[in-house]
Amino acid sequence: MADEVLSQNEIDALLSALTTGDMDAEELKKEESEKKVRVYDFKRALRFSKDQIRSIGRIHENYARLLTTLFSSQLRSYVNITVASVDQIPYEEFIRSIPKVTVLNLYNVSPLDGRIIMEVNPNIAYGMLDRLLGGRGDSINKIDNLTEIETILISQLFEKATVSLKEAWASLIDIEPELEDMEINPQFLQLVSPNETVVVVSLNTAIGEVSGMINICIPHIVLEPIISRLSVQYWMQTSTKKRDPEASDKLAKNIEKVPVDAKAILGETTMSIQQFLDLASQDVIALNHPIDQPLILKINDEPKFHVQPGKYKNKLSVQVLEEIKEGVEGNE
């Protein structure tokens, strides 16, 4: 159990109580020496550490952003999806916490064992359906009697969400999610045993004027093969891994072929609009660059080299004298 840190006011109050005799120091020592017992519920076995729960939260924060983009484009409406909470609870408790009639999308996440559930609140599900059918997205709860066409439309929308799910999990493992089934009654969906630990990721969802929750239920059996990857050490190791040398060489060669704009600047000057209008043939324009100083060669408008002008094979050319160090542009 983590140690509690007292504020300065609490420390002052404690010292005052000991000084005045309101609190006995011997009693405090006695209480400290007694064994502290913490109640543990074996039905709510905590099989994931806080570090692992945070990693799952990070993955689904990315998933929420991807879903926001997907649903915004598909529904042509304002959509905002954010992670509200990540908890580990028994599967039975998850089933009891969702409405009796709701939309349950069942995904297979090969090569991982087991399946995950995406539970969509009826307000959100019908609001999506109304938008797909050209409505304003008003929520009218009629999930229990969807027509065959309406069921197909909702299924197709959440089938497209598998691409976002794959992308969100790509930093951890390559999965091939597939929408297996859609159910409206959670009592018909016995995914794992009632006491099995599941991770439930709750997403706050707003679509137009309608808001509700999307809950993603991930059983322990799904995460068990990759549970070691849900640690900070794994994330740090993967982030510092060197790139594939072959891919780096290929990238470098492709970059070398990118065209750039090179300009040798003879000099610059300023003049008024009237002077510009008065220019005539044979007029001389004095530039601000000294004749005995090298010119500036700019690459994509960035000064890179000092050069001197000349001729090469009957063409005007410049010869590179030295590189201009970063932050030193020389006199133009």
UniProtKB/TrEMBL annotation:
Q: Where's the Flagellar motor switch protein FliN-like C-terminal domain?
A: 254-324
- Tell me which GO cellular component terms the UniProt record holds: bacterial-type flagellum basal body; plasma membrane
Q: Name one GO molecular function term.
A: cytoskeletal motor activity
- Protein's UniProt keywords contain Cell membrane: yes
- Report the locations given in the UniProt record: Bacterial flagellum basal body; Cell membrane
GO BP, sorted A to Z: bacterial-type flagellum-dependent swarming motility; positive chemotaxis
Primary localization class, coarse: other
- Name the keywords, alphabetized: Bacterial flagellum, Cell membrane, Cell projection, Chemotaxis, Cilium, Flagellar rotation, Flagellum, Membrane
> What membrane topology does the UniProt entry give?
Peripheral membrane protein
Write down the NCBIfam families for this protein, in alphabetical order: fliM_switch
Q: What is this protein called?
A: Flagellar motor switch protein FliM
> To which species is this protein native?
Ornithinibacillus hominis
Gene name of the record: fliM
